[in-house]
């Protein structure tokens, strides 16, 4: 009798509990809820703080997806804009800043970092390098943590 009651209770709980999505469905689910997407203006303001006057060289916008990346995956795309600006699109403000970082690091040869990790090499280039063929990059991990900063020899 005890086993039958336990089995019935387990079956009832299984019916009441929300079904968990399969792993593949979780990978293609929307990465950021709408209230965490942010906006392009915040990324432009960041550019102005780090490189005054540089936001005018970029066309920054949010997009629900990136070419060649599965729908629902957090990503960014870099391309040459029609007006000569560097076009950065992304699924959230985090992806947009990641795209700007990729451009600065890989095309301008600029670094922004901690002094003990090599420091920063911030400058305004005489001309902003072109991208060539568009580049899309997908996030490799599902979440970012604002307070999870990795530092060298932290003595906390």
Description:
The chain has 156 residues and is of the alpha+beta class. It has a domain at 34-136: Chitobiase/beta-hexosaminidase domain 2-like (Chitobiase, domain 2). The chain is built from four helices and four strands. It has a four-stranded mixed sheet, covered by helices on one side. A hairpin with a 5-residue loop joins β2 and β3. The longest helix has 15 residues, at 2-16. It is globular, with a radius of gyration of 22 Å. Residues 5-30 have low confidence and may be disordered.
Biggest sheet features: 4 strands, mixed
What gap, in angstroms, lies between the N and C termini? 57 Å
CATH-level-4 superfamily name of the domain at 34-136:
Chitobiase/beta-hexosaminidase domain 2-like
| Overall helicity | 25-40%
Using the coordinates above, name the CATH class of the domain at 34-136.
Answer: Alpha Beta
Tally of extended strands?
4
Q: Which structural category do the helix and sheet elements fall into?
A: alpha+beta
User: How are the strands of the largest sheet arranged?
Assistant: 1-3-2-4
> How would you describe the shape?
globular
Order of helices and strands: HHHEEEHE
Give the key terms.
four-stranded mixed sheet, 156 residues, 4 helices, single chain, alpha+beta
Please write out the topology.
Blueprint: H1 2-16, H2 23-28, H3 40-50, E1 58-62, E2 75-80, E3 86-90, H4 93-106, E4 135-138
Parallel strand pairs: 1-3
Antiparallel strand pairs: 2-3, 2-4
